[in-house]
Amino acid sequence: MEIVCYPHPALLTPTREVTPEDAVTLGARIRELFRIMYEGKGIGLAAPQVAWNVRLFVMNSTGEAADERVLINPRILRHEGSETGEEGCLSFPGIFAKISRAAAVTVAFLNERGEASKLDLEGLEARIVQHELDHLENILLIHRMSPAEKIKHRRQLKELRAQFSP
Ligand code: CO
Predict the structure, then answer these.
(1) N or C: where does the chain have the smaller number of CB atoms within 10 Å of the terminal CB?
(2) pLDDT tens digits for range 81-121
(3) Cα–Cα distance between 128 and 109 in angstroms, integer?
């Protein structure tokens, strides 16, 4: 598995749910996601970013092993407030854009043991969950950018499109 960058079509391929029975069999691939995320110095990585079209992502907002999270079939149950912050994406190398997100979310998901779980998150973790969940819906950083942000990053976006070879 390796990271695919915008405008690779895998980022726009619909994703499928994981059954609890399948969730427990994915340990090795999930470790691989963490490895690739750390290698890219990212704090979140969604399966579609390695051309794997399932509804799961991994995240770690601090770099501490204890803060590793695996969210399978995530669903946001509650959004609260709004906050604009700088966001990057391993599929848009070198691009950082100001994006508005809910300040806090409650998210339901299956964990890596296939168990139903729920988390209340705020700040950076809430932002990561919203960004990675967007990937599962095929919504990318470029779709969330304001017109001003798109203009600001126009040249870099053009370079990414030029580098892409199908
Ligand atoms: Co991303």
Answers:
(1) C
(2) 999 999 999 999 999 999 999 999 999 999 999 999 999 99
(3) 15
